[in-house]
Write a structure and sequence with these properties.
Elements: H1 3-31, H2 39-47, H3 53-87, H4 99-113, H5 118-141, H6 150-174, H7 178-185, H8 194-213, H9 215-223, H10 225-230, H11 235-257, H12 263-275, H13 279-303, H14 312-330
Length: about 325
């Protein structure tokens, strides 16, 4: 068996293990909470039309919520992996490079000026805002001649994010819509409905599939732009296509759960320790691991102080900030 075949076989085994962990975490999240249910009740809720208080709660509240956790976690993790690959920046994350802040600002504008837009309209606004944030950050990052500087991108992301968050707060206060905007941007999965998932899930699935199709190109770009150019890659077109993928994934996630930084930062780094630096392996494993992480964070948020909820954004941030500082201290040497 060749070396590449062995690597593929090992990856298949690791991905299978990851999918089993994801399934186990999903089942655990479904039966755990302020109202605990049995495995039999979960089975009936999924496979039958039997009614009952707990079964209805599982079908209409917990099942869409945990389904959203899987897809949002996958979207954020894949978008973070792609951003880290195309920018060769170990700190790249949709929440750290302006995309989340842009989506929030656009959402505030939509709530203020087009309150009847509906969920689909708000989602489109989030896409437009994420695109604006990306354009501003990458525009500032390439103002000087030369290759994209990871440090310059992080500084640009911090500046643009601060500005766009200020815009969001200003619009919210001026038009007295702070409560409505906060309900969208607080960062959580409370109140997720099947109608929302019907809009969001197809976008996330398409974004992840396109990212998988470009996985080889991301691997080449992660080495060095000069290497990619030497191998005949059209860097500008590939990067533009992948930025669109990141915008779709980040915009869809923000429109559903609001601010959730650090998922896209942490998961790809952890995944690399298991599957290496090939993005054909990193992207699918990041999708699975992101789902596991979001399920774990949401379950912890629902149970740590039950019957009250701890915001999932706070739980993710408690894990993400130390990780961010560790990666920053490491200096990204493995990406150079």
């Amino acid at each position: 068996m060749s070396t590449s075949s062995k690597h593929s076989a090992w990856f298949a085994a690791k991905l299978t293990a990851g999918l089993l962990i994801l399934a186990g975490m999903f089942i655990f999240a479904m039966v755990t909470g302020a109202v605990e249910v049995s495995f039999r009740e979960l089975w009936l809720a999924v496979t039958s039309r039997v009614s009952g208080d707990k079964i209805s709660m599982l079908r209409e509240i917990r099942l869409p919520r945990e389904t959203a956790a899987v897809f949002v976690g996958a979207a954020l993790a894949v978008s973070g992996a792609v951003m880290q690959g195309i920018t060769r920046n170990p700190l790249a994350d949709p929440g750290l490079l302006g995309l989340t802040a842009g989506a929030n600002a656009a959402l505030a504008l939509a709530v203020a000026f087009v309150p009847s837009a509906g969920y689909f309209g708000f989602m489109l606004a989030c896409f437009a805002g994420a695109a604006l944030g990306a354009v501003l950050v990458f525009g500032i990052g390439i103002m000087r001649r030369g290759l994209l500087s990871p440090l310059r991108l992080i500084l640009a992301g911090a500046a643009v994010s601060t500005f766009l968050y200020a815009v969001t707060d200003g619009i919210s206060l001026f038009y007295k819509i702070s409560k409505n905007v906060s309900m969208w941007t607080a960062g959580g999965l409370i109140g997720t409905t099947w109608d929302q998932l019907l809009v969001i899930v197809p976008v996330i699935v398409v974004g992840i599939l396109v990212a998988l199709l470009f996985a080889r190109q991301v691997t080449i770009l992660s080495l060095h732009e000069e290497v990619a150019a030497g191998l005949g890659q059209n860097i500008a077109r590939i990067r533009a296509a992948l930025v669109v993928v990141v915008i779709l994934l980040a915009g869809a996630s923000v429109s559903l759960v609001g601010n959730l930084a650090f998922v896209g930062l942490m998961v790809p780094h952890v995944v690399r320790t298991f599957v290496g630096s090939d993005y054909r392996f990193i992207i699918p494993m990041s999708a699975v691991s992101g789902g596991v992480m979001m399920l774990a964070a949401d379950t912890l948020g629902r149970t740590v102080s039950a019957p009250y909820e701890t915001p999932v954004a706070a739980i993710v941030a408690m894990m993400g900030i130390p990780f961010f500082l560790f990666i920053a201290r490491k200096g990204g040497r493995s990406f150079s």
